[in-house]
Amino acid sequence: MDELVHLTVADGVATITLDSPHNRNALSTQLRRELPEHLSTSIADDAVRVIVLAHTGPVFCSGMDLKESRSADSEEQGVQEFPAILEQIWTCPKPVVAQLGGPARAGGVGIAAACDIAVAVDSATFAFSEVRIGVVPAVISVTVLPRLQSRPAHELFLTGETFDARRAAEIGLINSAVPADVLSTEVARYTDMLAMGGPNALAATKEMLTSPRPDGMGPAFEHMLELSAEHFAGAEGQEGMRAFAEKRKPAWVPGAAPKA
């Protein structure tokens, strides 16, 4: 059986490519199995600093494979597996960038929202079309709603209306909408910036961004002071400050000269 998800690694960037254009990269059983496997491999690889989720064909991801989902057993399996995929992306200690060269629907929107950064071609479209087939966009709401402004969330979840990439950027679903001929350049701009961050600092910052805050400013400041002190005193923080003083790139930056 041919692989539906591919992994390549170059210059510290792991590119995970959905390659199932015959069904618009729908979340079939096979794709749901292979995607988390490649995510796990990328997370475990110390050479990988940033992960990019890309695709072949004109559609980023059309959501669950509805042909499979007509079976009750397949539907239950998909419901059980997909949240774990979204959580794996959301909690990944390495930055994850979605590169959307085309539309996303349903679960595909949930995947894009789970990523730290999402860049789409300006011709891409999005929709929460679940209500129009009599189901609820429940699972994807866990990653989508933290990104969206409240009014657009109500409007788009309830109407199922299709909206374009420009509006997706305006309401917080994606970071930027760009012409097709500069999509890869824009993604590379983000991956280059992300690779400049210390691996431990990036992981801790991601956890900080997604974790609930303690109640009250006092406990919040106390927790943040502990986090700050831990990383200032850590080996990575010390190397970063030395590199700044010595006007060189820190050791973790791809291509940096070895420490003296």
Automatic annotation (TrEMBL):
Gene3D superfamilies, sorted: 2-enoyl-CoA Hydratase, Chain A, domain 1, Lyase 2-enoyl-coa Hydratase, Chain A, domain 2
InterPro entries, per database record: ClpP/crotonase-like_dom_sf (IPR029045), Enoyl-CoA_hydra/iso (IPR001753), Enoyl-CoA_hydra_C (IPR014748), Enoyl-CoA_Hydratase/Isomerase (IPR051683)
CDD domains: crotonase-like
Superkingdom per UniProt: Bacteria
Pfam families associated with the record: ECH_1
Molecular function per GO: catalytic activity
Family membership noted in the UniProt record: Belongs to the enoyl-CoA hydratase/isomerase family.
Protein name (Swiss-Prot/TrEMBL): Enoyl-CoA hydratase/isomerase family protein
